[in-house]
Write a structure and sequence with these properties.
The structure is a single chain. It contains 5 helices and no strands.
Length: 148
Amino acid sequence: MRKESFNKGVLAAARVACAIALVGSATACRSTDKVPTDSMASVIDDTQGQDSGDTGATDTGPTDTGPTDALAECREQVAEVFAEAAPAPSQDDLDCCQDIAEYYDSVDLAGLEEWQERNGCCEALDWQGSLACTPWGPPCPPKMRGAA
């Protein structure tokens, strides 16, 4: 294959990929369907059967979707273990790491950059078991030989 035809092929593939990304993102933003979330469903269930003689104020319940107390305890436990120079996590520590990783999976990885023990935990979990413990990107290709 000649270098010129290879470059044209790569350029054409890049244009197609860019066009698909633009069209795909434009149609995804146009969705007008409103799907109730779990927190909305609980609010709907809580308000059913109430008197209609309210003053108009309704209790929407807790809206905080932050970590639970058990998860906070796991975070503290993991922070202590991985603060050591040569951490030796127990099975309980690994379970906490898995719980924390699954929490980030459940919130679509929001706030993942704040998880300071991620590298230690995910290394101990062999980078398996959750999206939060997926190493970035595919493996790097081998170095290209220098032009002669």
